[in-house]
Amino acid sequence: MSDAPSSSYANPWRSLWFRPRVAIEAALAQGQSATPLLIALTAALFSLIAAFPDKAALFASSREPATLATLAAVAAAIIVLATLGYYLNGWLLNAAAHLIAGRGSAAATRAAAAWSSVPLLAADLVALAFAWVSAGQAARPGWSVAISAGQLMASLWSLALVIAMLGRVQGFGKFRAFVAFLTGSIAPALLVALLVRVFLFQPFSTPSGSMAPTLLSGDYFFAAKPDYGYSRYAFPFDLFSFRGRIFAHAPKRGDVVVFRHNGQDWVKRIVGLPGESVQLKGGRLYIDGRIVERREVEPEPGLFDGFDRPLIAPTYEELLPGGAVHRIVQLQGDDGPASNTDLLKIPQDSYFMLGDNRDNSMDSRMSEVGVVPFENLIGRAELIFYSRAGAPASPRFDRVGARVR
To answer: Domain residues for 239?
Structure first.
């Protein structure tokens, strides 16, 4: 039986589901090779869904005007970048196909990628509609599982479609189409992600509440590596072995930093700089003999004990020298187990770290950690890109770092 377009399959929307090779020919025959609207819609929805994984919290929060404006700005930027990325991906996919004797054009290859995304696009639209309807309501586990299963099936179907359509556009079989898809679409995406992770932004998760209320247990955040330059600890798998830092920039007091200690990644806040003297007395922080100002504020939600029961703890705003302001909590007030320390002179090229959850943090107060050499710093925490605490669930710009007054 011929795969040539027939009158019963002249509409690519109908033939898409069971005759993908016919669907792409019908689309091309009707002059829909570029399909810019479909590409923009596909890129926008896929990227927005990836950027805001907790869709129910996204919709629940969007009723606030200020939040809606912020989300709209983020969404607009994502749509533009994602659409450009879609066109670049089509060019790379076509180039990879031509390396193995493909004969299609970049526009036709881009059309194949866009049209094959329709099943997954439809599944994601259903998920968004469900999130909108159920925002602010009790969770429905059964429906959530069904929608997730539908998205998985749609993903597999879209993969099958892109292989079939790419093969027809380029004029070769399914195996070479699959190879072209791997080398032209998957491999470049993985390479870009690897380069970003190694040189620019690395994702981390918060395993404990030692940095609450700034970072809560289960938060996922990005650390920026260029802020302090690069040492051997900035690169994964011990790729490079050298001493010191290149393109070095000194961190500022109040920065929330990720550093390497005993083979593990830690996250704390810098409170003491090289050459200063630091001590805690009665729960109060002293730098060079001067007490650091603080004022009590309303406790924040998000703290839990070992049995996942909410905790209400004394909360303060601490004003560090230089003007950085951040919040700390003291579960045991000023009488915690590490509320009193010896006077410590910070060596050159080292920093004194504290957790914002002062009575539940292993940090520079303990001999097991001590001061942290500049070389051990990996990067500065910049953005919480996913948080289960509060709404919106992601991203969070408001908790990381310290503001200056």
So the answer is: 202-404
| Catalytic-labelled residue, pool 268, 350, 387, 394 | 268
Distance (Å) of CA 311 to CA 24, 224, 257, 328, 330: 58, 32, 26, 14, 11
Calpha distance 272→293 (Å, rounded):
15
> Backbone phi, then psi, for 47, in 5-degree steps?
-70, -40
- Catalytic hit among 33, 210, 231, 394: 210
210 labelled catalytic: yes
- Give me the residue label for tokens 């079989």: 173
- The answer to whether residue 206 is domain-embedded is yes
- How many CA atoms does the CB half-sphere of 165 hold within 13 Å? 35
CATH code for position 272: 2.10.109.10
Q: Are residues 192 and 325 in the same domain?
A: no
Instruction: Say what the pTM is.
Output: 0.66
DSSP conformation letters of 228-274: T-B-GGGSGGG----SS-BS--PPPTT-EEEEEETTEEEEEEEEE-T
Q: What is the pLDDT of residues 73-119, one digit of tens each?
A: 666 776 777 677 778 888 888 999 999 988 888 888 888 888 888 88
Report if residue 1 sits inside a domain: no
Residue range 264-277, pLDDT digits in tens: 999 999 999 999 99
Tell me, what amino acid is at 206? T
